[in-house]
Specification:
heterodimer, A: about 375 residues, alpha+beta, Butyryl-CoA Dehydrogenase, subunit A, domain 3, 10 strands, B: about 375 residues, Butyryl-Coa Dehydrogenase, subunit A, domain 1, 4-stranded antiparallel β-sheet, 3-stranded mixed β-sheet, 11 helices, about 50% helix
Chain lengths: ~375, ~375
């Protein structure tokens, strides 16, 4: 057991810190070209796609340094390392793992350069948590697949150029995980209709997507026909590994603590109320627990052992915190919490919190609800019978 | 970065589990817990031979010279098996002497703790059950170079079998630590049965006991700081046993959920049963992460120990309370019987909750150490 970094890793951490300090100074943040300068600078460092192979424009970096990079960036409150989040998180890795040479050359550089967005066509109206039963139909017709069906809860579909899409090419399999085919689909293809859905927080992040005889060239097949489930399993596992999220959560908790120090409740500071203190301490403890859990997972990855269902542990903690930190901020702020634009007379900048209270489903439901995470742990780790 | 056990620690864990399976299965645990002091001579000797009693004692004083991560590995196993033995108590006394004793004092006390001929324990608490310097009212009256002590210590673990007590007392504005032998004149101790039948706890009474100058621990520069460290070490040790016990409670309940058939299927098929079991797993693994980091801090990052300990004990106390209750509840009526082992784990969760600070106490420390 050793929680210390090697000298080489420490030097890298210092390099990242110095870079962040220079490029994220208050003056730099105020400049008009801040975001584009930032994206250019991190791209030049090869910190976008840090762990992707160098041959495809990535950084070729190891897992440990990747964690250091992400953690330091989260601590510094940095903008993302590249804007194509789904592309960087799972579309790119899936293409690296399953894609043809042509697909790699065509898609990976654009993801790294934040040229356009990717969206993820997984959930369907009848098949959300039970994703593997999906029914969106693809039929091979010469050099094309013809797609008919519907997707839903597709985040950022209305401003994405490409979609990674799960379809069913075989409806007569014994195992529902077979017969699924993964296609890369251009969103302006004839026959695709995107209808944004307004969410309870007022935004329209996700959409319904309809496919009416949409034709996709066969070279846009990712992996083998009928073996698309493997692509999603790898992709979803990638989504859940995030150690760096913890640094972001710690930052969020610091903001709630600051709020509690400033806000007055029942005639005294909120941070002096025992029940508030205990809830803050518990959130702090869970965040530290997540950080340490993450280090245990990381140790296994560094040893080359596969990571699978245990990452659901931190997903459950994160779901709890997403709701808890928002609700706690409401109790700290009282009535002033209700104004969506913030309440200038209370002297606390809190318009973040009511928004957080309403948009937690993005984190809690997206990528598998808490009950699905519990099923995963119970069935895959504890060996309990499937429902 | 490596948050895993070494090969040696894995061996220690395996050997401990095999020993406990063979020599202290639950039938033996139940026999020993019925005895007046929940103590078995033969088991104690065997533990001494395995090096467990001197695990963290330097080899020059007859110990094995390992660290607190190793001790945590061992205590996880003894907790898992609910082993009734004063292993935590004697390890903590050894830690106090190792950290704060002079070379002469280490030479006099540690070898007998390592070979099991002496059994040590901490006697930190008094009336009021205050975990900190404010809880120390016992005042030493100077006599010669030493002190006379009269008063009581309360909630002393393994008070009935201990032969050596680490006793903090006030001397003017300072807090000092006396090493008090059970055989000394004026010393009496009684242990009482607790909710957890495998544990004993009681009072140490000191009636005008003379403490010689060289029985006052020489080391600590600041007694209050030393006391805080002993409380932290004790909380780490208790939490390590809790991790093993809660993991075993989870295993027992999971197995029951696979075996028990109701409505035509194993009850573990139903989400009302499988989800609490998944939550147990989340709680055990997160407690384990927090605990091992605290145990690592003992030797490698002492200034991080208070916060790491507070987080570990707070989280594990809440987690084990839930696991104990859910464990019995998921068994149904059979879980309430004396015959089934799950109830012993529920009792351990109740014993462990207040031991060296409950969730309320340690969460409050997390707050104050966090600067709010």
């Amino acid at each position: 057991m050793d929680f210390k970094l090697t000298p080489d890793e420490e030097a890298f951490r210092d390099e990242v810190r110095a870079f962040a300090k220079e490029n994220l100074s208050p003056e730099a943040r105020k400049s008009s070209g801040f975001l584009s300068n930032w994206l250019k600078a991190v791209r030049e460092k090869r910190w976008v796609g840090f762990n992707w192979p160098e041959a495809y424009g990535g950084g070729g970096g190891g897992i440990m340094k990747q964690v250091i990079l992400k953690e330091e960036m989260a601590k510094a409150g940095a903008p993302p390392l590249g804007l194509c989040l789904m592309g960087l998180q799972w579309v790119g890795p899936a293409i690296i793992e399953y894609g043809t040479e042509e697909q790699k050359k065509s898609f990976l550089p654009d993801i790294l350069d934040s040229k356009y967005q990717w969206c993820t066509g997984y959930s369907e109206p009848g098949y959300g948590s039970d994703l593997a039963s999906l029914q969106c139909k693809a039929v091979r017709d010469g050099d094309e697949y013809v797609i008919n069906g519907q997707k839903i809860w597709t985040s950022i579909a209305s401003w994405s150029k490409w979609m990674i899409l799960l379809t069913r090419t075989d409806f007569n399999t014994d195992d529902k995980h077979d017969g699924i085919t993964c296609l890369l689909v251009e969103m302006d293809s004839p026959g695709i209709e995107v209808r944004p859905i307004k969410n309870m927080a007022g935004g329209s992040l996700f959409s319904e997507v309809f496919f009416d005889n949409v034709r996709v060239p066969v070279e846009n097949l990712l992996g083998e026909e009928g073996k698309g489930w493997a692509v999603t399993v790898s992709a979803l596992a990638h989504e859940r590994s995030g150690i760096s999220e913890v640094a972001g959560l710690a930052k969020q908790l610091d903001e709630v603590i600051e709020l509690a120090k400033q806000a007055t409740r029942n005639g005294r500071r909120a941070s002096e109320q025992p029940s508030i203190r205990r809830r803050l301490a518990k959130a702090d403890t869970i965040i530290e627990g997540m950080r340490l859990n993450g280090q245990r997972f990381l140790t296994r990855q560094l040893k080359g052992e596969p990571l699978s269902s245990e990452t659901s542990i931190n997903k459950l903690h994160r779901a709890f915190l997403a709701i808890e930190l928002g609700d706690l901020s409401l109790e700290i702020l009282g009535n002033a919490s209700q104004y969506l634009g913030g309440d200038e007379t209370s002297g606390v900048d809190q318009n973040l919190w009511p928004n957080g209270v309403l948009d937690w489903p993005t984190v809690v439901i997206g990528g598998g609800t808490p009950n699905i995470q519990r099923n995963i742990i119970a069935e895959r780790i504890l060996g309990l019978p499937k429902d | 970065m490596n948050f895993g056990l070494t090969d040696e620690q894995q061996i220690l864990s395996n050997v401990a589990r095999r020993f406990l399976d063979e020599r202290a299965p639950m039938s033996t645990v139940r026999d020993v817990m019925e005895s007046p002091e929940a103590f078995d001579d033969k088991l104690w000797s065997a533990m001494a031979e395995l090096g467990w009693l001197g695990l963290i004692i330097d080899d020059e004083y007859g110990g094995v010279g390992l660290g607190w991560v190793d001790l945590a590995v061992l205590l996880e196993e003894t907790g898992r098996g609910l082993l009734p033995a004063p292993l935590i108590s004697t390890s903590l006394a050894a830690a106090a002497i190792s950290d704060f004793g002079s070379a002469d004092q280490k030479g006099r006390y540690l070898p007998s703790l390592a070979d099991g001929s002496a059994i040590g324990t901490l006697a930190l608490l008094e009336d009021g059950d205050v975990l900190g310097p404010d809880g120390i009212a016992l005042a030493g009256v100077k006599e010669g170079g030493g002190y006379r002590l009269s008063g009581s210590k309360r909630f002393v673990h393994d008070a009935g079998v201990a032969t050596l007590f680490i006793v903090p007392f006030r001397a003017g504005s300072e807090i000092l630590f006396a090493v008090v032998q059970s055989s000394a004149e004026g010393v009496s101790s009684q242990s009482r049965r607790t909710m957890d039948e495998t544990k004993r706890m009681g009072d140490l009474t000191l009636d005008n006991v003379l403490v010689a100058p060289d029985d006052v621990l020489a080391g600590p520069a600041d007694g209050a700081v030393a006391l805080a460290r002993l409380f932290d070490l004790a909380a780490v040790a208790v939490t390590a046993e809790m991790i093993g016990a809660m993991d075993r409670a989870r295993e027992i309940t999971t197995q029951y959920a696979k075996d028990r058939i109701q409505f035509g299927a194993p009850i573990g098929k139903y989400q009302g049963v499988k989800h609490p079991l998944a939550e147990m797993y989340v709680d055990v693994e997160t407690s384990r992460s927090l605990l091992y980091y605290a145990a690592w801090c003992v030797g490698e990052k002492p200034d991080g120990l208070p916060l790491a300990t507070a987080r570990a004990k707070a989280y594990a106390s809440e987690a084990f309370t839930r696991i104990g209750t859910d464990g019995v509840q998921l068994h149904g009526a059979i879980g309430f019987t004396a015959e089934y082992d799950i109830q012993l784990y529920l009792k351990r969760s109740k014993w462990a909750l207040p031991a060296f600070g409950d969730a309320e106490f340690h969460y409050e420390r997390v707050s104050s150490l966090g600067g709010y």
